Amino acid sequence: xxxxxxxxxxxxxxxxxxxxxxxxxxxxxxxxxxxxxxxxxxxxxxxxxxxxxxxxxxxxxxxxxxxxxxxxxxxxxxxxxxxxxxxxxxxxxxxxxxxxxxxxxxxxxxxxxxxxxxxxxxxxxxxxxxxxxxxxxxxxxxxxxxxxxxxxxxxxxxxxxxxxxxxxxxxxxxxxxxxxxxxxxxxxxxxxxxxxxxxxxxxxxxxxxxxxxxxxxxxxxxxxxxxxxxxxxxxxxxxxxxxxxxxxxxxxxxxxxxxxxxxxxxxxxxxxxxxxxxxxxxxxxxxxxxxxxxxxxxxxxxxxxxxxxxxxxxxxxxxxxxxxxxxxx
Length: 329
Hints:
There is one protein chain. This protein is α/β, with parallel strands linked by helices. 47% of the residues lie in helices and 12% in strands. It has eleven helices and nine strands. The strands form two sheets. The protein has a six-stranded mixed β-sheet with strand order 1-2-3-4-6-9, with helices on both faces. A three-stranded mixed β-sheet has the order 5-7-8. Strand 2, helix 3 and strand 3 form a beta-alpha-beta unit. Helix 1 crosses helix 11, helix 2 crosses helix 11 and helix 3 runs parallel beside helix 4.
């Protein structure tokens, strides 16, 4: 990854990176602040920060404006169909199943295919200890200053299209939350028909900490499920919920002991998959259709607001602070 400041001593005279180039912005600020220290001390402090930022695998929890970056082909998403169930598995356990822009595209394609295949229900789950840690922080890097607005715009379009796929999915959609969930993997849960969680799961939406705002229609679905006050605790103040708390507040359908989670959930899902599929689709349509237009409007509004947030100094500074704190851990 290219450094924003090539020099290793003295003041940083390189122009400040673009507003959305968060990691290089953090490097620039760090070197700028260290310029007056003794050379050896400044050099070592800067190298420590850059190394920490570059190797960080933590995630921010939200889709980023770097929406059109193509990732190499990988096995980051595994789709299987068996026993009347199409299962979409997030498969980056070493990165806590953090999402890349390519994974957003792949999930949309998987949902489109699942809507037309012979399965009765569809499941989204994660491989490893995490369900999903939100967005991969490396998505924030290396955005040229001249492309900032275009990236923000394309990111908002990707986010809107991604959430629309969940709103429009015609079959019963089940989240099997096998571990901690962060950001958009939490906000989307209001669009699922059933959410089963291990008692080891937690649910965290740290949007204000990142200078951002809610997405996934959560500004509508969360207050409706849990009331405005509880929704505000999560979406505005970033309160992390346990699985039991999430179940009490209506975000989770049922919580299972971690030791028996997989066995109990899949036995139940296999039984559900044997129900008449057309009856299930029609019943979901009756339950969900009256709100589809509202959800699409909410999604468009949330995506537009996030596009503005990504271009704000407040968001930039919050992300830089987040990265710097993570680097010091």
